[in-house]
Specification:
It catalyses: dTDP-beta-L-rhamnose + NADP(+) = dTDP-4-dehydro-beta-L-rhamnose + NADPH + H(+). 42% of the residues lie in helices and 16% in strands. α1 links the parallel β1 and β2. α1 crosses α6.
Length: 295
């Protein structure tokens, strides 16, 4: 199986490359200058030349706060670009696996969101990602859309790595405690993508297509997440950092965040038999990876 993934530096891309190397799966990361998500012609040409069995649409505009003032660019990449990737996959007869987000929901629901719940994004980023989902579905019926959330990994920039970096110079941090979600390891996401890719290449069953939620098991607030990071840090490296739990109102940002980002993964478990590990378990694995490298 040959997989092409958009982007080169993102957390999911880097995790896929690591897992592909470990499992002997041929994965090509395709990004600038070969393709530009704002230039559909470049996308079509690149994938026509590669002709992979599956295309993973992972590249995106992810600057959530900056998107509030760069809406045109966010939609160009996350909506038009995503649609162009899906269309390029359709032209070569390949399925597309598209990575989306919890930010397509408002966060007003009291329980975890299912795939059947109404979307209502409250930020430019969320609206651009929802537009991308619709564009993918419109141009390529052979699609799997995976909504994930609170992604962390040994790669790129993410909450876990930020907490570790700040812990080097601070012994106390203020962290939002009234936003709840599902921390998700990009390495776990990569494992799920590889399993899904192998199924959809071999099986045309319509129920394997559509939108699914893919997040780590359990739930946490950002403050819970930080406290768990620092508990592990204390055990592993002897560094002690305190967490002051604060409300969102005390940490204003240009873009609104959903207060409830929890996603229900039962549909993915029923359809593919995939349920990601509990988030604390996966977080420990990623932390040890980082600490072993001296980060």
């Amino acid at each position: 199986m040959r997989i092409a993934v958009t982007g080169k530096q993102g957390q999911v891309v880097q995790s896929l490359l690591r897992r592909g190397a470990e499992m002997g799966v041929e994965i090509s990361a395709v990004g600038r200058p070969e393709i530009d998500l704002a230039d559909p012609a470049s996308i079509a040409a690149a994938f026509s030349a590669l002709r992979p069995d599956v295309i993973v649409s992972a590249a995106a505009y992810t600057a959530v706060d900056k998107a509030e003032s760069e809406a045109e660019l966010a939609f160009s990449v996350n909506a038009a670009g995503a649609g162009a990737v899906a269309e390029a996959a359709a032209r070569i007869g390949a399925p597309v696996i598209h990575i989306s987000t919890d930010y397509v929901f408002s966060g007003d629901k009291a329980s975890a969101y299912s795939e059947e719940d109404a979307t209502a994004p409250i930020s430019v980023y969320g609206r651009s990602k929802l537009a991308g989902e619709k564009a993918v579905a419109a141009v390529n019926p052979n699609h799997v859309i995976l909504r994930t959330a609170w992604v962390y990994s040994p790669f790129g920039t993410n909450f876990l790595k930020t907490m570790l970096r700040l812990s080097e110079t601070r012994d106390h941090l203020r962290v939002v405690a009234d936003q709840i979600g599902c921390p998700t390891s990009a390495l776990d996401i990569a494992d799920a993508i590889l399993a899904i890719a192998s199924r959809i290449v071999a099986d045309p069953e319509p129920s394997l297509r559509g939108t699914f939620h893919l997040t780590g098991g359990g739930e946490a607030s950002w403050a819970d997440f930080a406290e768990e990071i620092f508990t592990e840090l204390s055990k592993s490296a002897g560094r002690n950092v305190g967490v002051e739990r604060i409300p969102t109102a005390d940490y204003p940002t240009p873009a609104k965040r959903p207060a409830n980002s929890r996603l229900n993964g039962d549909k993915l478990a029923r359809t593919y038999g995939i349920r990601l590990p509990e988030w604390k378990q996966s977080m420990t694995v990623v932390m040890q990876d980082l600490l072993n490298k001296g980060l």
